[in-house]
From TrEMBL:
InterPro entries for this protein: GP_PDE_dom, PLC-like_Pdiesterase_TIM-brl
Keywords: Signal
Protein's name according to its UniProt entry: Glycerophosphoryl diester phosphodiesterase
Domain GP-PDE: 13-253
Source organism of the structure: Cytobacillus oceanisediminis
GO molecular function ontology, one term from the record: phosphoric diester hydrolase activity
PANTHER family: GLYCEROPHOSPHODIESTER PHOSPHODIESTERASE, CYTOPLASMIC, GLYCEROPHOSPHORYL DIESTER PHOSPHODIESTERASE
SUPFAM superfamilies, sorted: PLC-like phosphodiesterases
Record flagged with keyword Kinase: no
Length: 253
């Protein structure tokens, strides 16, 4: 975290490395997460999905086509099939051989070292994935993460309500890029189970930030891919900035 200044006051802003430091290394791979740690991010953001045979894996798209040398839907491929894919070369030859990580691997390698912002990606495609995620966290005693910096978020609000029941002590975030979710009524409904309201920066205004805070929620906004976007969010009173480039939001640079 670093101190940012708005209206003359210093405040703490968390630096969240989106899919790892995705601007610098292949997203959602160990290379990208290690890079984020090296760049002193406060959190890594990961996208969780599930293989055909039930393994929780870290990948953003619901197909493997864009980020690997394979084709097909994540949910139709076995873990063995997913694990043979090259998830690094699309970002550069030097990353050849990076694998699709598992959720377990990420928890074991990074918990306690850096915060983990866990996105359940398209949970509607993976019935029961909430239970599997909850089990992995409980096995590691990460379900009361005051000091472990674990947050779970999704665009799927029903899934987050379920997570809130399964893991009542773990902070929850709701993701949206839709203005319809910024109404007073919508925000109030989110605040019944969510700790974070996490909007695309295109819908962030001073008023919105104030409303979210007055309902007792924090606000993390995404996704910074330019210095302009970083500067805009730094001028707002947000609690965290989710960025492909951790250095853009770090005042030490
Ligand atoms: O963490 C926020 C951001 O990751 C949401 O969008 O599509 O990059 O998963 P997306
Ligand atoms: Ca994400």
């Amino acid at each position: 975290a670093f101190a940012a200044e708005t209206t003359g006051e210093l405040r703490k802003v968390d630096n969240v490395a989106h899919r790892g430091a995705a601007g610098y290394a292949p997203e959602n791979t160990i290379a990208a997460f290690d890079k984020a740690v090296e760049m002193k991010a406060d959190y890594i953001e990961i996208d969780v999905q599930r293989s055909k045979d039930g393994e929780l894996v870290i990948i953003h798209d619901t197909t493997v086509d864009r980020t690997t040398d394979g084709t097909g839907k994540v949910k139709d491929l076995t873990f063995e099939q997913l694990r043979t894919l090259d998830a690094g070369s699309f970002k550069g030859e030097e990353y050849k051989g990076e694998k699709i990580p598992t959720f377990d691997e990420i928890l074991d390698r990074y918990h306690g070292k850096v915060g983990i912002l866990i996105e359940l990606k398209a949970p509607e495609l993976y019935p029961g994935m909430e239970e599997s995620v909850a089990q992995e966290l409980k096995e590691r005693n990460l379900d009361h993460p005051q000091n472990e910096k674990i947050i779970i978020q999704s665009f799927n609000f029903e899934s987050m309500k379920k997570i809130n029941e399964l893991l009542p002590k773990v902070p929850i975030g709701v993701l949206t890029s839709s203005q319809t979710h910024t109404s007073e009524q919508a925000l109030k409904e989110f605040s019944a189970y969510a700790d974070y309201f996490n909007p695309h920066y295109g819908i962030v205004t001073e008023d919105l930030v104030e409303q979210v805070h007055s309902l007792g929620m924090k606000i993390s906004s995404w996704t910074v891919r330019s210095q302009e976007a970083a500067d805009f969010l730094l001028s707002m009173d947000v609690d965290a900035i989710i960025t492909d480039y951790p250095d853009y939001v770090d005042p030490r640079n």
